[in-house]
Amino acid sequence: MKTILNNPFRTVGLLVGTTAKEQTKQINRLKKFIEAEQEPQDDFSFPILGSLNRNIDSVEDAVSRLNLDHDKMDAALFWFWNGKPISDEAAIEALKDGDIEGAYQIWEQLTTETKDDGKKVWKSISDKNYSAFHNSSVLSLVSGKGAFVSAIVANIKFIESDYFEKFLKDAVDETYKVSKKEIQLNFLKTVFENIDNKKLADLVKYLNDYDFAAKADFQKRFVQKPIEQIEQKIETAKNKRKSSKANAAKAGQELFTSTANDLTQLKSITGISDIKYTSIADKLANEILQCSIDYFNENQEKDSNDDYAELALKLAKQAQTIAAGNLAKDRIKDSINTLVEMKDREISQAIQALQSVKDAYETNKAEINAKVISMPLGYNQTVNWSKVEKMIENSLNWDKVVELIQNVIPIQNIDKIKNVNNQTTLNQYKSLVVFVMSKLNYSQKNKVRYISYWEAQGSVAMPNTGDIQKIPDWIKWVAGIILFFILIKACN
Fold it and tell me: Mean pLDDT: which of 30-44, 70-84, 161-175, 450-464 is highest?
């Protein structure tokens, strides 16, 4: 922990409880070593814990912090204290010698005992071990020895004990007044600022089941505060949404962005399954979704030309990333499905219209073929299938089909159609277009050629020079003779 490694007590090389006279002496001594560009020997900075870059500025800063009782108290909570010399001195000397394991074992034996089932439990805090609870906690936090949660609990137990007054008297001036609750909260606040989310979640889970003086205040400060902040922002967004549905998407986006840190913090403390988290997460997700719905409905009623469906869909998907409960998740899922359909309504309408044309054609084809097959034929009579095919082709009024396409699939819809992300839907549209276009004549095709946007538009392409060269010579010769006679006839 940085709070331990950069502790002002460590910077000046002193233990908690050092007298003012000893502090002045050590600081003067330390400055002389620094000015001489030498490393001071035999102080209490414990190099084994990690690197420490000391200079005149860092020492002066440490001294300033140690002169203020509040800062000094915060620093003392995360540094070693020779509160019980008969046991602490041996452990402290072990640390000076670089023996972390030896120091930890001394303090652990004083604070824990092993039951017959092999389980370690806390000893009662007594006149023999009170300082060991504090010191073992500090060593565990900085070195990783023992269980992290146990290290935190050890110091909380110590702060709650009657022996903490001895620590308080040694650490700060007697005139400094502070409650044990406030000290516990400050201790936990510093811990929270120095650990990762995994350790934080484990610690909070344990503390929620552990009774200590500051528990209620702890839960309010570290759990309730982000909840209250999120609720305030939800209410602000709701008011904005109701006052202007046209700006509902903006309100929803601001809500999503502004609550991200609070929600992440809450999740890291409570975990994703905690009722406190799931309740506020669902409340937040539902409001963001409502912003999406109101914005979409407002623009749809006004028949807006903006791509409002895309923005509404984006907002709904953001709400989906927040929702924790099944009810909220299902509601958002249904809304997203609806928005996807509405977003792609142009291609859906196009497919429906084209499919109806194809279905009508196939129905007519089946009926005509059935009638032809059932017709009795006389001797030597055969079916003229060419006429049948022509009859099938003419069974629909293709001019009316062209009018239908122009009405249902106007050219302004093509940009939206070709930007559809669902490849299966796009392929279905293209297949139907190819079918319908194959049934139209040249004039009809020209009127709706835009629906086959993936093909080259414009007049029929002329063969290139390479293609002309490939035409057999005899065809060129015959064509020349025909052209000659046409010209002669024209001259006459």
Answer: 70-84
- Tell me the C-alpha distance between 237 and 284, whole Å: 10
| Nearest-angstrom CA–CA distance, 478 and 485 | 11
CA distance 247 to 390: 57
CA–CA dist 455, 59 (Å, integer): 77
Condensed to tens digits (0 to 9), the pLDDT of residues 93-144 reads 999 999 999 999 999 999 999 888 888 888 999 999 999 999 999 999 998 8
Which residue is it, tokens 């004990």?
A: 161
Query: Mapping DSSP to helix (H, G, I), strand (E, B) and coil, where does residue 378 land?
Result: coil
Two tokens, residue 467: 């293609």
Strands (E), 115-255: 120-122
H/E element, 81: none
Rg of the chain on CA atoms, in Å = 42
What span, in angstroms and rounded, lies between the C-alpha atoms of 178 and 161?
Answer: 15
pLDDT in tens, 362-376: 999 999 888 888 888
Give dist(CA 131, CA 137) in Å, integer.
10
CA 262 to chain centre: 13
Say what the pLDDT of residue 480 is. Answer: 40
Which residues face 16 on adjacent strands?
Answer: 81
How far apart are alpha carbons 156 and 189 in whole angstroms?
A: 13
**Residues 6 or more apart in contact with residue 492 via CB below 8 angstroms:** none
